[in-house]
Amino acid sequence: MMAFLFGLFLVVACGLVFGNKKYILVGAYASLVGTAMWFVHHASDPLSILL
Amino acid sequence: MYIYRKLNALGLIVISGMLCFALLDQFLAHELPCPLCLLQRIGFVAVGIGVLLNVMRGPRPAHYSFSMLAALVGGAVALRQVSLHVIPGTPPYGAPFLGFHFYTWAFIWFAVALTVLAVITSFARQYKDDDGFLPLRTQPWLCKIAVIMFLLIISVNVLSTFALCGPGVCPDNPVSYWIFG
Question: What is the pTM of this model?
Fold first, then answer.
């Protein structure tokens, strides 16, 4: 999954270097949201420091 | 000519350098990255995407905004890892570098990136002196180097992460590469 997230950003980076597509920023935001969701999903346990 | 693109290219080289250092530590010191470590690397890549947009298409507030949001996400990941290891009796992850662990350094660098980006965004002149999208072959040499470095470093991260974790979830404390069984 983590390799997939890296892969998404690689596709976005290649898209914006080798093409001039206007929707590439949307792809970048989608990748960032995916990363944030993956982080939140796997970091839902409470931190000991907060308890 | 293209002074702001070149400044962004320098920023991209700094980001690539940090990612390169993390990879060297992984390959030479055999310190395999944990899932949160990998997410922090992704955070730096995401910050770099906004900077890369500035290099390729010229500076835009939307590009800086993306980098700042990415720095916030990356900083949150780093802060969580710092919080996991800050309690006495909780062992740290990995060896320290110049007195701090990598996740602490990551948090510092995300905070620095956020501050620098917030300041640079306010320079309004950069949005006027620009030609929009420039193909890679017509970019200044500094920008070409920065872009190629960044693409290479993401590619190596894709391969090394797949070798480490495979298609599934990464182990919390990896001791060997998935691809080698």
Answer: 0.93
